[in-house]
Amino acid sequence: MSQTANFDIKPYWQNYINGAWVDGGAGRLAVDNPATGEVLAEQALADRADIDRAVQAAKACHQSGALSDLRPVERGRMVQKMGQYLLNNIDEIANLLCLEAGKPLWEARVEVAGAARYFEYYGNQAETVEGRSIPLGSRYLDFTVYEPYGVSGQIIPWNYPLEMTARSLSAGLATGNACVVKTPELDPLSNYYMAKAAEFAGLPVGAVNILCGYGHEAGDALTIHDDVNQIVFTGSVQTGMAIAGNAAKHVVPCVLELGGKSAAIVYPDADMDNLEQSIRWGIYFNAGQVCSAMSRLVVHESVRDEVVERAAALANRLNVGPGMERAEFGDNMGAMVSAKQRDRAEGLCRRAESEGARLAAGGHALNRPGHFLQPTVFDQVTPDMNIAQEEVFGPVLSVLSFKDDAEALAIANGTDYGLVGGVFTADIERAMEAAQRMRSGQIFINEWYAGGVETPFGGYGKSGYGREKGREALWNYVQTKNIAIARIAGTHPGRA
To answer: What is the share, in percent, of the chain residues with pLDDT greater than 70?
Structure first.
């Protein structure tokens, strides 16, 4: 066993199918520690046959009614219990998550708590999914009911491997679906605890299946499987388009949460101390590896110099290094998840400089083991530059300037994405006007990441479709059935 910070890691982790821990038909996958670049452990690697077994287990569970026939409050209590299991074991889970994903230990604890919150919230929502009565006159009783799709296939991203699993799994289970979860290859280990949580909660066998596999094999097999009834995917636009194509061929609904190039408009009357706090969380939390990161600041020209100076000072004072050495909340940042991701982000920084952007802070990989990139700020960015259009998915902030409101909105809306947006101003009327005109699924006013599990999340344009979080997410996992009852036999209008 390897040992880091007095925490032992199993050398080998299996997949979970139909209530049993199993090896993978595709062999094993080495999982790295992003803080060192060294192998942390091995993970069983699923092949297409493994995916089929998991789907069949989920299908059998659904058809048996072991989950879907429960009274919703009973199902909800099970879902809530999964969250409680995560909290009961938060130290152990956060340690593992820190080591496999590279994030600071305190950020890993935030993620575990966030995952638990999803189970708490959707467990509470389970008994609120109600149909309605439709008045058709005295001769008929007409009403709707919501039914689970059956088998929900869920493909999880690597940036929040535990929390994103919780987001879809909790809503899927609360509405009575049996789930097959394909974990990310880069950091799959912590999802072991999702299976343990399902066992702890007493969920029926087959309701939760957790497998790691390559996207081109296991992920593809899940999205084309004839017995998968609904798909949830979070990840890149390119992969999302392929999944949508597979789903369309089988006429299967899917939810796609894809990329973002989110902008915050900063007006001259913005509270600069408050803005600085939002920059800290908006672009440097999780090393910027967040779909809804504040990657662009669209700043009025009169305050641009002050904003750049503050952002650069913030970037320079962030302490960057191994997550296990950063257990306390504060101005620190961990590694990026892999050398490939770090090198891609650094390459985009070099391209930005070649196109004329001014590097105000960072911009380079750290000269040390592990996958670290300096917190970065670019000034003098123009909307036509690649850095203003392409998602970096790293700790890289671009500052653009504007002269008037129309120009600010044109810049903010000037990408293919539309996941979230922000407005910083003391003028609430101006803020609301901008919020209404920004093409984004969620708008933050005067605080990036305002909201929570309760608030719907999803994008416009190439940021995807469907909504996660909030009550809106529940409708992704159910279909509407209408039932019409004639009160008096023999009175059909077409009968003699």
So the answer is: 97
What does the mean pLDDT of the chain come to? 96
Residue 492 lies in a domain: no
- Catalytic position from the list 254, 291, 346, 391: 291
CA–CA gap between residue 361 and residue 345 (Å, rounded): 14
Q: Is residue 36 part of a domain?
A: yes
Could you confirm whether 291 is annotated as catalytic?
A: yes
Question: Is 98 tagged catalytic?
Answer: no
Q: What is the pLDDT at residue 441?
A: 97
| Catalytic residue (choose from 100, 111, 163, 257) | 257
Number of domains in the chain: 2
Closest CA to 394 of 435, 442, 362: 362
pTM higher than 0.90 for the full model? yes
**Rounded to 5, what percent of the chain is helix, strand, coil?**
40, 25, 35
Q: Assess contact for 377 and 395: CB atoms under 8 A.
A: no
Same domain, 244 and 385: no
Residues 134, 272: one domain? no
Looking at this protein, which amino acid is placed at residue 381? Answer: V
pLDDT at position 3: 37
Q: Which of 384, 155, 183, 114 is nearest to 258 (CA)?
A: 155
Q: Which residue has the tokens 């493994």?
A: 50
pLDDT of res. 335: 98
Residue range(s) defining the domain that contains residue 271: 262-445
Q: What is the pLDDT of residue 487?
A: 85
Residues 275 and 248 in one domain: no
Say which residues have a Cβ less than 8 Å from residue 379's Cβ, sequence separation at least 6.
304, 308, 357, 358, 360, 399
Q: Are residues 160 and 280 in the same domain?
A: no
